[in-house]
Amino acid sequence: MYTHIVGTGSAVPARVVTNDDLSKIVDTSDEWIVSHTGIRQRHIVSAEENASTLGCTAAKRALEDAGIAPEEIGTIIVTSTTPDYAVYPSTACVIQGMLGAVNAAAFDVSAACPGFVYGLTIAKGLMQIDDRPVLVISTEIMSRTINWSDRNTCCLFGDGAGAVVLKNSDVPGGLGFHLIGADGTGALAIHREGGVRTEETARNAPGDLKMDGRAVFNFAVRSFCDIISKTFENYGWTEKDITWIVPHQANTRIIDAAVKRINVPVEKFYVNIDRFANTSSASIPIALDEMVKKGLIKTGDRMIFAAFGAGLVYGGVAVEWTK
Ligand code: UT7
């Protein structure tokens, strides 16, 4: 039994905020942001949008692409660092209701930026015991978690959602090698309060995202290299076998640093951070959907999704495209 991606979809808010727009509210410039991150603009939600509305739109598009009705879905897995509700109900349950996916179990996964990769891995395991299709939705409203007067973080993030439909079949290919891991000693390198860890955090508003950018940068480069070299080592692929690496879109300099350490040409990395910034766990499925829509992926292409983020966590999935 093999697990395949049979549909993709994405959704981003209509409103675009450019680097020049940001330079009017904080001491920054288009030149600094582009040269340090590769980002030129980001999409930002309106007051009416949130993780479930964007996630639902992306999911509907993925279902339509797959030709699968909501009632056929066995499980909905949502990954988000910006859920509609702090703990419950899960955003997956909210979206299940919106979609009318009446036969689906629904739950959220907390794995920050690698959430999509974790979601695919959990889905594949689950599909060994429940053969029905699974919807993995990654949806993020980063703009509501950042301090818009902090130039260190406000230029880095954007909002958006991406989704895939997974289906089992006897056709070889699809989701192959999976690698997920964590280093909890770096738990505070990116964090946001709001949990019930103490009386104070339980009663106060969550506050803004806080990040030690340099520490995350170093972890990110290490993780990228590990994911790719371990996939080659354990799965038998070489650089020549793969058409694409679809990285978590956090910073083009992280990709450049990884390229210097591994034997994969930079042209094989698909990058769209210039237009969407870092949309956390949504970044890989948004990129994937864009690649599909542009006709950049053909049957038989081999690719690796690679991500890192708060936790600290990392994850990679090797995929042979069969759609
Ligand atoms: O999904 C995971 C999420 N996180 C990441 O992926 C973050 C990974 N880290 C990074 O991408 C980089 O560390 C950053 C882009 C966050 C920062 O780049 P950097 O080259 O490490 O800059 P820095 O933090 O060392 O700051 C250098 C200078 C500082 O000024 P001083 O103290 O040297 O005077 C910053 O205040 O750049 C300044 N700076 C800015 N200047 C203009 C920081 N942000 C800005 C800005 N515009 N937006």
How are the secondary structure elements laid out?
Elements: E1 2-11, E2 16-18, H1 19-22, H2 30-37, E3 41-43, H3 51-66, E4 75-79, H4 91-99, E5 105-109, H5 115-126, E6 134-141, H6 151-154, E7 159-169, E8 174-182, E9 190-191, H7 199-203, E10 210-211, H8 213-235, E11 244-247, H9 252-261, H10 273-276, H11 283-293, E12 302-309, E13 313-320
Parallel strand pairs: 4-5, 4-6, 11-12
Antiparallel strand pairs: 1-7, 2-3, 6-7, 8-13, 9-10, 12-13
Helix pairs in contact: 3-4, 8-9
Bound molecules: oxa(dethia)-CoA (UT7).
The site of oxa(dethia)-CoA (UT7) has 20 residues, from α2, α6 and α8.
Q: What does this molecule look like?
A:
By secondary structure, the chain is α/β, with parallel strands linked by helices. Helix content is 33%, strand content 24%. The chain has 11 helices and 13 strands. The strands form 4 sheets. Strands 1-7-6-4-5 form a 5-stranded mixed sheet, with helices on both faces. Strands 8-13-12-11 form a 4-stranded mixed sheet, sandwiched between helices. A two-stranded antiparallel sheet has the order 2-3. Strand 4, helix 4 and strand 5 form a beta-alpha-beta unit. The model has no long low-confidence stretch (mean pLDDT 96). It binds oxa(dethia)-CoA. Oxa(dethia)-CoA binds next to helix 2, helix 6 and helix 8.
Q: Quote the average pLDDT.
A: 96
Flag low-confidence runs: none
How many β-strand runs?
13
Widest beta sheet: strand line-up:
1-7-6-4-5
Helical element count?
11
Bound molecules: oxa(dethia)-CoA
